[in-house]
Amino acid sequence: MKKLYGIGTGPGASDLITVRSARLIENADVIFAPNNKGKNMALDTVREYIKTENIIYLDFPMGKVGPEIYKKNLEIIHENLSDNKSGVFITIGDAAIYSTFINTLYFDEEISFEMSPGIPSFLAAADFAGVPLATKGKNFLLTDDIENANLDFVDRIAILKTYKNKKEVIEKLEAHNFSYIYLENVSAENELILREKEEILERENYMSLMIGWKNE
């Protein structure tokens, strides 16, 4: 059976990937890298650890991706991954959280896979901003769908992919008595943290998220 490692490359800084992930990348025979119109954030993050020249690009547009794209990229993986080779699929954040890796492997039963943990953007964001996400007796919610999120029993929340619906996110947070911050490009040189509503609404960056906490 073919074996593929899903490597979470973290929020974007090359020194925030795990030692284990770095070693798997260094020893890989083939690297599968998500590609979006020439942008390869996961690949750019780990280039210094790559020893092989065998890099296969998988086209994934930002935003909503349909099953046909996952299946097409799965075919490419099968074509380039043999039983006696080590394959690595790199993905930003952690491979188990809203990742192209887990969504792609969902359509396959022939590849045996293993995931190496990465630092998710919302954890890095909370650390950099000095905002605790989970404390004793408090409920934490991670979501990319604020419209259907029930905030009645939530004390702290991280909302991913807020680049298109910040107004709706803020309105719902304020309606449930939440304070909030907005972050983009977490861990990068151009990292940005905003707390003022008007400034937040002016931004439009795919690599953004918001963290909220209920006022007591």
UniProtKB/TrEMBL annotation:
Pathway: Cofactor biosynthesis; adenosylcobalamin biosynthesis
GO biological process: cobalamin biosynthetic process; methylation
Alphabetical list of InterPro entries matching this protein: 4pyrrol_Mease, 4pyrrol_Methylase_sf, 4pyrrole_Mease_sub1, 4pyrrole_Mease_sub2, CobI/CbiL
Record's keyword terms, sorted: Cobalamin biosynthesis, Methyltransferase, S-adenosyl-L-methionine, Transferase
MF terms (GO), sorted A to Z: precorrin-2 C20-methyltransferase activity
Ranges where the Tetrapyrrole methylase domain occurs: 3-198
CDD domains: Precorrin_2_C20_MT
Family: Belongs to the precorrin methyltransferase family.
Protein name as catalogued: Cobalt-factor II C20-methyltransferase
Organism for this UniProt entry: Ezakiella coagulans
